[in-house]
UniProtKB/TrEMBL annotation:
InterPro entries: AB_hydrolase_fold, Esterase-like, Ig-like_fold, Ig_E-set, Mycobacterial_A85_antigen
Name of the protein in its database record: Esterase
Pfam families cross-referenced by the UniProt entry: Esterase
Organism expressing this protein natively: Flavobacterium palustre
Entry-linked SUPFAM superfamilies: alpha/beta-Hydrolases, E set domains
Amino acid sequence: MTLMSSLISAQNEPVKIIEDFKASTVNQPGQEYPQVNSQGYARFQIKAPDAKSVVVSLGLGGAKGGTELAKAENGVWTGTTAGPMDEGFHYYHVTVDGGVFNDPGALNFYGSTRWESGIEIPAHDQDFYALKNVPHGNVQQILFPSNSTNTSRRAYVYTPPTYAKEQSKRFPVLYLQHGWGEDETAWSNQGRVNLIMDNLIAEGKIKPFIIVMTYGMTNEVKWGGMASFKIEPFQTVLVDELIPYVDSNFRTLANQENRAMAGLSMGGMETKTITLNKPDVFSHYALLSGGTYKPEDIKDKSKVKLVFLSCGSKERPDGVKNAVTELKNANFNAVSYVSEGTGHEFQTWRRSFKELAPLLFLNKK
């Protein structure tokens, strides 16, 4: 056999799956499945004795494809992904004879405009969002009045561990937006942003700040219809209603210099539009898999303290890098970050936030 034929033969050989599967860390209490192994494969098991077909659809809206499960004599369907999954968190749902359901073994997370099952693939760098024995901040729900929508709206507010103790201290604020199909729970539940903050603060890597997360889909837009999204209703909720409420009810540094806005995916689109529309409100801008800025987009560079752009290596990293190069050449404080081995998914955004947080409010009083 020639060297070339040996290489081709080796490439065509199926990967041997290591049988060290363990329950996913985001399973329902006491549930054995779904499972993940050290290679990043996921294994699912569903009991559906009368079903004719069971398929697990992975990713937001099933974008990562399906895994067909096989039925055993006891009516239990089992199947393993064809290959390893990217590290980090993934949505999924189960299709049984054409009907869409959640996996009863997994916890649910709001994505794809519905509560989806979730699975966590262990990451080599997962320590930065791990639950550790460090001082913890508080994530609290608030209901704030919204005259523009004629209702009370919900937001979640992260306050750092020292907030309750340092009664005379005021803090900068980051307004952090979720992506399409998600809601204000996403950054805490899927993104673990509060744990990332706690760990960075404990390590002395960042100056503590408040994070505010609210629902950005003020206009209900279906998948693929983002071109018809109108920013004005959400901009009114955020700038005219939520920010004044937060500044009145929390100890904030209530000025443009100490206020940032960031968002992932659709939240990045919202961030870009609102920061450009309202340059007197925010001074730090961050788009996580959410587009880019051009130097000519920003009319007064003196108002901008930071522009942070990021994405996964499986997205369009050259676009992010080139945009930051142009911004730097125009004398903006611009930073790019690319998450290696990930795409349009939460591991990209967890890592992006970890890189962003130490850059925020370096001029804080």
